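SAMPLE LOG
Freezer: B-3
Tube label: C17
Construct: single chain, 115 aa
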Amino acid sequence: MFDKYGGFSVVSKIVLDLYERLLDDDDLGPFFDDVEFAKIVDHQTKFVSSVMGGPAAYTDNQIEKLHSHLAISGGHFDQLAAILAEVLKDHGVADEDAAEIVGAFAARRHLVVNR
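STRUCTURE (predicted):
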């Protein structure tokens, strides 16, 4: 899937679009007030690339560590998943591939939701 959609350059565009929409969201935007934007985009690009079968590696331990101090609810996570699905669709990712990517996020929900 990574090569099918154009590799890092396309994944990077998808992730940048995702974070632009997350920052604009009244509920999710505040989670990113005190984070270094370039760093979080880099982490997310690596994660999405690894989910798509790319050469980047990302561990569940890293995901848990990055989110452990945040009060992320199940509702926040559901909202993120909906925005991610919308972004993937807008970037031409096929429904079945988008479902796989969103499913990879959902499989790690327990590492992110803290309340």
